[in-house]
Amino acid sequence: MESTRSQLRRREGLGEEQEKGVCGEGDVKTHRAPDLVQWTRHVEAVKTQFLEQAQAQLAELLDRAMWEAVQAYPQEDRPPPSTAPDTTRKTRELPHVRRKVFITRKSLLDELMEVQHFRTIYHMFIAGLCVLIISTLAIDFIDEGSFGQLPLALMTWVPMFLSTLLVPYQTLRLWARPLAGSSWMLGAGLGCVLLAAHAAVLCVLPVHVAVKHQLPPASNCVLVFEQVRFLMKSYSFLRETVPGILCVRGKGTGAPSFSSYLYFLFCPTLIYRETYPRTPSIRWNYVAKNFAQALGCVLYACFILCRLCVPVFANMSREPFSTRALLLSVLHATGPGIFMLLLIFFAFLHCWLNAFAEMLRFGDRMFYRDWWNSTSFSNYYRTWNVVVHDWLYSYVYQDGLWLLGQRSRRAAMLGVFLMSAIVHEYIFCFVLGFFYPVMLMLFLVFGGLLNFTMNDRHTGPAWNVLMWTLLFLGQGIQVSLYCQEWYARRHCPLPQTTFWGLVTPRSWSCHP
To answer: What torsion do the CA atoms of 45, 46, 47, 52 make, to the nearest 10 degrees?
Structure first.
């Protein structure tokens, strides 16, 4: 009975298929078309996800393989010091140390710009910039005087550069002299005095000029960024060369070549090496494009401040304080704040550094990674600014582990956050001309907590959304509070200058 029913069902199905084949073939294709589209989309999504995972794992695998190859290089096969004065190879020979390896590679955004869709988004930003320029942005920019006294800032930069160019290298040459009793001790003492004078020039001179002449924020930016850069480069040069020089100072080994040190002062890295991977030629059109893009980002940032921040915060200190007004101002500042964050990233970490890398044929263009895909703040801190992260990792975190022991990883990480937070707050204080520790609290307290709580174990789109939400709020808090303090100090000047008056936030009590 069952076999008869199954035969009847097969015959009915066959008859329906034949009928559809004769007069309903189009209907079959119509029913199958949505399934085919869905299947194609699914395959494309799987392919994209697979390629992203494979690319990330392959990059990590290659980096680790290169590092292990460098570490596995036989010590006995290395050239003797008398024939190869590369003192950076003997800086630290500790089993836990992972040194920075430079390889020739493009910046991530340059790779993304090879895709037409990303280029279209970039063209939209260019079109918006043209509209802003037409709307008298250039006039507002000149009237604000943000770059006033720029020649004075550039004149101050000259002695800072000459001190960085001459003192660390001459100090290393004094320390590299052959050991000959008291003469070496005299040279070593003279080198220490020169380094102290160099540190005094870099730390005191720009602060003195900025305070005495009341430089505007943009000119202060030039001085403070160059001050921090020269200090970090000087430390890296001495940290990478002095240990090797002291180990072989009695064997006739000299200091590295002056040309390698001069190249290091201008190349876009904070880690000293005697040689770096180089590109075969210079693309001057690429250099000009990056400088033009950096200038466009500056104009964008000025427009955002003048059109979106000044009208809101200029008179806010004249009104009575209320929690509602403060909350609304923070929410209003989230948009301008995140735009300025993206503009700073694109202008400096991509355009400015790539322009100098191209002019100097510097091969390793990995100045940042895909921080926008981060699902944890620990990954965001590692990928946002690779140039500074490498310096902190090499000279604060690793050296901290060397001094405190392998079990003090959290203490070493806390030291990294403390130094980074202090330097960030110092930069804000220098540029704006007042002390208001908003950045210090956000970076050290909240950033430290998020680094330990939102770690790499968290993955998925929801965590990326959470990270961006917190970034939006953090930028809104910074823009809102710093703008309020800026105008409060202009509306409520101190009748008498005191220390507590300088360090106490004026926006808390200014109600003219």
So the answer is: 90
For residues 219 and 210, give the distance between their C-alpha atoms in angstroms, rounded to a whole number: 9
φ, ψ for residue 387, nearest 5 deg: -60, -50
pLDDT digits (tens, 9 = 90+) for 181-190: 667 778 778 8
- Amino acid, res. 54: A
**pLDDT tens digits, one per residue of 443-502:** 888 887 887 777 777 777 888 888 899 989 989 999 988 988 888 888 878 777 777 777
Owner of token pair 């004078």? 197
- Determine the Cα–Cα distance for residues 208 and 500; give it in Å rounded to an integer: 20
Q: Tell me whether residue 350 is one of the annotated catalytic residues.
A: no
Using CA atoms, how far apart are residues 388 and 103, in angstroms rounded to an integer? 17
Q: Which two tokens stand for residue 266?
A: 């201008």
Three-class SS state of 68: helix
Model pLDDT, residue 156: 92
Q: How confident is the model at residue 157 (pLDDT cuts 50, 70, 90)?
A: very high
Q: Determine which one of 424, 458, 491, 511 is catalytic.
A: 424
Contacting residues for 386 by C-beta, under 8 A, at least 6 apart? 366, 367, 368, 369
**Cβ atoms of residues 266 and 360 within 8 Å:** yes
Q: Please check the confidence at residue 301 and state whether its pLDDT lies above 80.
A: yes
- Percentage of the residues of the chain whose pLDDT score is greater than 90: 25
The candidate with the shortest Cα–Cα distance to 492, out of 348, 315, 335, is 315
Place of tokens 């980002």: 297
Collapsing DSSP states into helix, strand and coil, what is residue 69? Answer: helix
Supply the DSSP symbol for 434: S
Going by C-alpha positions, the residue among 320, 312, 328, 326 that lies closest to residue 512 is 320
- The amino acid sitting at 287 is V
Sign of CA dihedral 271, 273, 277, 280: positive
Of 2-11, 322-331, 460-469, where does mean pLDDT reach its minimum?
A: 2-11
Q: What are phi and psi of 189, to 5 degrees?
A: -65, -40
Query: What number of residues does the chain have?
Result: 512
